[in-house]
């Protein structure tokens, strides 16, 4: 059973990518629906297997390292695999209706979509540094192609800017990987950890890890390296923007978090952890303020992503030099924040796409009067915003509550101000959009009404984000299942 589940996760998306490359948009859409069903079922099956039996090591082809590829299947990995299946399925469903099949460039959406999905699964399950790099590069190249999908000059400029940032970040990461291999002779995370614990190797690890973290921070768009993100997310098609914000930027953060938690204990210090936390805090404040000031709706949501990413980097100060209990609490809070933000931001981008389609403009002030005639997508946008604000009973509230407790328990009370200010600023830019939509511009319905399916999809995602706080405990119990070291 495990063999089929792993094959379904890693090889099915690649097969579907090649298959849809040979088809036009409409035929690719039908094939993709079948592939999405397979991926969701396989993801649920693997999640249930880990929840029942615990995590394990999977060796592709039965080959042992260093010749073979190790996949580490633990509670956190399968949680991200399932999250990817849910969000990608929603975005694929939305794209199949939202994108115009008559435009020739849109036929390439499906192969890029599947390459992206394959790369994400490879990152969540990767057990060694080089294969994490391969998955990350597959994600980046597919994402750049999706940004450029429209073919307009603005989209191409944003895609090239994104490509340059992604390549620079990858170069820094790969150089760190090469240095670690030269020092330890292995790229397995478990192997490097074991060798590091067996002797004094800190001097050979500090520079490579800092280099890798810097490259990953650039790919995650941490302030002040965030300049590439708003143009790319703002100009892309709405289903693409949802994928980028919900999943793509999380992949590089996921790798950075694993490096920090597994190899960063001896990295150096309080000062570095606090510096990363400060950069995350500045991202929350500055990104939220810029989101409030944007004239275009999708730019509001894009700068909101810059802000929400900042919360994730509080992981670094809240897990350095603290007890295991506090560290575990912070890790759970950050993981809930990732999941909640992925669901909410995907809902927000898809709802924004529906609103832009309805009013025929990307400007916030063009929403005047839309609340009377098209309340459904606007309501989805607001529900997603409630989660970003961190109001109960949303997943965002549960995540920030855990981070607040970890901050107090570790004596780092100053992060409370960031959590509070970020929530208030999130409310400001969400309510600004609502204020514009409730202005009465005309008494007649002059808006295009999108398909009901387009409006149902962001509502489902927003409700999932809202309900996450109600089921946080069972979700966290699976997230926390460790990798026990056994192989299959």
UniProtKB/TrEMBL annotation:
Domain of life: Bacteria
Domain NADH:quinone oxidoreductase/Mrp antiporter transmembrane: 127-421
Ranges that cross the membrane: 6-23, 30-50, 76-96, 108-126, 132-150, 162-184, 204-228, 240-261, 267-289, 301-322, 342-361, 373-393, 413-434, 454-472
GO cellular component terms, A-Z: plasma membrane
Membrane-related topology note: Multi-pass membrane protein
Pfam families: Proton_antipo_M (PF00361)
Entry keyword set: Cell membrane, Membrane, Oxidoreductase, Transmembrane, Transmembrane helix
GO MF terms held by the record: NADH dehydrogenase (ubiquinone) activity; oxidoreductase activity
EC number: 1.6.5.11
GO biological process: ATP synthesis coupled electron transport
Class in the EC hierarchy, top level: oxidoreductase
Keyword Transmembrane: yes
Subcellular location: Cell membrane; Membrane
Family, as annotated: Belongs to the CPA3 antiporters (TC 2.A.63) subunit D family.
Protein's name according to its UniProt entry: NADH dehydrogenase (Quinone)
């Amino acid at each position: 059973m495990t063999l089929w589940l792993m094959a379904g996760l890693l090889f099915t998306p690649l097969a579907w990518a090649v298959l849809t490359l040979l088809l036009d948009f409409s035929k690719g859409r039908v094939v993709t629906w079948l592939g999405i069903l397979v991926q969701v079922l396989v993801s649920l099956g693997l999640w249930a297997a880990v929840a029942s039996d615990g995590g394990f090591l999977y060796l592709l082809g039965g080959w042992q390292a260093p010749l073979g590829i190790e996949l580490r299947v633990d509670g956190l990995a399968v949680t991200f695999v399932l999250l990817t299946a849910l969000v990608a399925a929603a975005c694929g469903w939305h794209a199949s209706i939202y994108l115009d099949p008559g435009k020739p460039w849109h036929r390439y959406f499906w192969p890029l979509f599947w390459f992206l999905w394959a790369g994400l699964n490879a990152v969540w399950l990767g057990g060694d540094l080089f294969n994490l790099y391969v998955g990350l590069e597959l994600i980046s190249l597919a994402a750049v192609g999706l940004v450029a999908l429209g073919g307009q000059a603005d989209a191409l400029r944003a895609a090239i800017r994104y490509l340059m940032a992604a390549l620079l970040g990858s170069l820094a990461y790969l150089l760190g990987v090469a240095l670690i291999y030269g020092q330890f002779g292995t790229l397995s995370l478990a192997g490097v950890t074991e060798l590091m614990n067996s002797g004094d190797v800190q001097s050979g690890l500090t520079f490579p890890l800092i280099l890798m973290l810097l490259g990953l921070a650039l790919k995650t768009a941490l302030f002040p390296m965030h300049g590439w993100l708003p143009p790319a997310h703002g100009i892309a098609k709405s289903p693409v923007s949802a994928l980028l914000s919900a999943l793509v930027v999380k992949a590089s953060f996921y790798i950075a978090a694993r490096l920090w938690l597994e190899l960063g204990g001896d990295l150096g210090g309080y000062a570095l952890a606090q510096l990363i936390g400060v950069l995350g805090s500045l991202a929350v404040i500055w990104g939220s303020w810029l989101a409030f000031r944007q004239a275009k709706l999708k730019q509001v949501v894009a700068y909101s992503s810059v802000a929400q990413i900042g919360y994730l980097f509080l992981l670094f100060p809240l897990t350095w030099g603290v007890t295991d209990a506090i560290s575990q609490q912070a890790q759970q809070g950050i993981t809930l924040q990732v999941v909640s933000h992925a669901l909410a931001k995907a809902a927000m981008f898809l709802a924004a796409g529906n609103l832009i389609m309805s009013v025929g403009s990307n400007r916030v002030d063009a929403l005047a009067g839309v609340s009377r005639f098209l309340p459904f997508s606007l309501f989805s946008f607001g529900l997603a915003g409630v989660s970003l604000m961190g109001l109960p009973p949303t997943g965002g509230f549960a995540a920030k509550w855990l981070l607040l407790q970890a901050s107090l328990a570790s004596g780092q009370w100053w992060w409370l101000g960031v959590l509070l200010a970020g929530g208030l600023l999130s409310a400001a830019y969400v309510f600004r959009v609502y204020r514009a939509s409730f202005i009465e511009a005309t008494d007649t319905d002059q808006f295009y009404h999108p398909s009901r399916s387009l409006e149902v999809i962001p509502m489902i995602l927003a409700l999932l984000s809202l309900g996450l706080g109600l089921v946080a405990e069972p979700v966290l119990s699976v997230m926390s299942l460790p990798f026990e070291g056994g192989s299959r």
